[in-house]
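Suppose a colleague, Dr. K., hands you the sequence of a protein chain of 424 amino acids and asks what its three-dimensional shape might be. Before reaching for any lab equipment, you can write down a predicted structure in token form. Begin with the sequence itself:
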Amino acid sequence: MLSLKYIRENTGYVQESLTHKQSQVNISNLLEFDIQRRNCLKEVEVLRAEKNQVSNSIAELKKAGGNAEKDIAEMRSVSNRIKTVEADLRKVEESIANDIYYVPNIVHSSVPVGKNETENIVIKKWGDVPEFSFDPKDHLSLGEDLQLFDFKRSVKMAGAGFPLYTGLGAKLERALINFMLDFHTSKHNYTELFPPFLAHTNAMQNTGQLPKFKEDMYQIPEDALYCIPTAEVPVTNFHQGEIIPEAELPKKYAAYSACFRREAGSYGKDTRGLIRVHQFNKVELVKFVHPDESYKELETLLENAEAILQALGLHYRILELCSGDLSFSAAKCYDLEVWSPAENKYLEVSSCSNFENFQARRSNIRYRNKSTGKSELLHTLNGSGVATPRLMVALLETYQQKDGTIKLPTALHPFMNLEKISIP
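The predicted structure, expressed as tokens, is then:
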């Protein structure tokens, strides 16, 4: 969340950033509410001073044996006016609190300006595009032949978009999760968390999912809870309301969770198999860092996510997102896209973002400056490290063999206790 003071003092810059982000938010209403709020505060201050003055006058009159009825009537009038102005102030502050949560984060100066994903910039490619001496199958055919997942039966359980992994497919999904968690905790020094898969409104609001993206959430209204769209939500709220000693920064966490997204408005778009689903698994990386180090930490975060794809030997590319494709909360973001031989295109498996103090302000997460002793807002970052569905797609299609088997990358051998997935 941007502070009202920042928006007021940097109106032109904020509006320019909103334009670059293709946001339709109108901050002029917010600024008008701000003027009303400050006018109310000034009036209340004047009225309270007047009330104190009249109160003192009443006390002196009574002490001198005079008639204070006129002053008492005046004080009642002032008190009633104070109540009216305070009620107006509460209404204005509620309007501000509602509107300010719809204002997206500022775009960092290094982000290329662009309207949408067509203007994202490819900054790196790693590995070779797989080549085959036979006609490669897609992940759906491979999964059916090898009995790795069953989309027909999963519809009986929850409907379309909720995958059911079976046999070695279930084992491979579990192996990928364990491999990534072990990799990030042992090689990159992340602390592992296993968070709740449900979160309340405040937690969702703190990370920027609410109120803007409410329609994409699965809700449990009886308990005022939401199914999390990413482990970023509970893990970022791990330090909600806390002040962290500067010497303890950065704090780095890796967390597995199931993720739930209604994907409202995406009907018919990439809905085949595992490419776009309502429930999926993901290992999330979250950092709490010193503001002076956050962009250096963003590059490291990206490298950590990359390392998973490199260890699995998968061809991928990195995109630097343009301003118009940035998420609501992000100041800067990189996307990692892995190659799908059957789809003949890149599929996103990770977004690595710097939110600067946008989430920290909402969540009231600070660090104690060791030089000044003051508490200051820190910066939060997160990245998928990585999501499994499209990773599974790329893995199966890349490592398929002519005989229909899947030759597993060496990194997964200890987790699968086998080197090849064969037809049962």
